[in-house]
Amino acid sequence: MACICLCGGASSWAADATGFQDWQFTSSANPATPTVATNAVGVATATMVIGSAGAGWLPSLPGFGTNTGLWDIGSQNPQDLTNDTRGRVLLDIPNPVPATGGLYTDLELRVVQFIDGGIYTGDLTFSPTGAVFIARTIIEPLAIGNWVEDQYELHFVPSPTPVSLVITGAAGGTLLDRIRVNTDTPPAPPQLVINSVVQSNQVLAITWTGGLPPYQVYVTSNLLSSGSWAPVGQPVSVTNAEVPLDLPTGFVRVLGSSQ
Fold first, then answer.
1. Domains of the chain with bracketed CATH
2. Which of 19, 142, 161, 226 is the most buried (most CB within 10 A)?
């Protein structure tokens, strides 16, 4: 080798980012913007698609407690089973994380809905899939049913921009009172920095810190646009590697999974 150039990979991750949206549905606006929100990159929306027999927005509903600002998004039409007529909520949430490989977004979803075990079963479904049920907490006990808060967790890989989530109501009907969404993205990892280079016989031992595994060592014969980087060995999860000095190359670099 005539020369050796060692290149660490600069991190492409965005800074730590979180977002919070709370829809209390104080009006019939559709799409609805959050009543309370913290999102530095934009305004989230919730669009209601009313299904069969759905009454839409209601300021309150006699016999269903003191809850206000309700959405009756309808049900499956039993006379039209060939078409899905269940009500839906389309959530569109700006996300500051770029949609690149290795990045993810965790989303916590809380839905307050009326459950009576008969008509209102509370069986929500989600698209895209990936919702993991966490807990159900009774908010307000009633003689004929309960307002309950369901909490779900969703994991998106890679991070979508924006986060788009469709909540589909139960076949018997869905009565919503409140939706809260919290998005959480990982903090930026430290920049990948090569710490030491030690030559021993015909081997170059390299160590580094930062970045995210798996790591890959690459070599090239030149840094011109016509040059190409070829991987050396397999990706590794450790922060060290060895490069044979008999390769017909003059430049070496290390990249983590976030580059």
1. 5-12+188-255 (no CATH), 18-184 (2.60.120)
2. 19
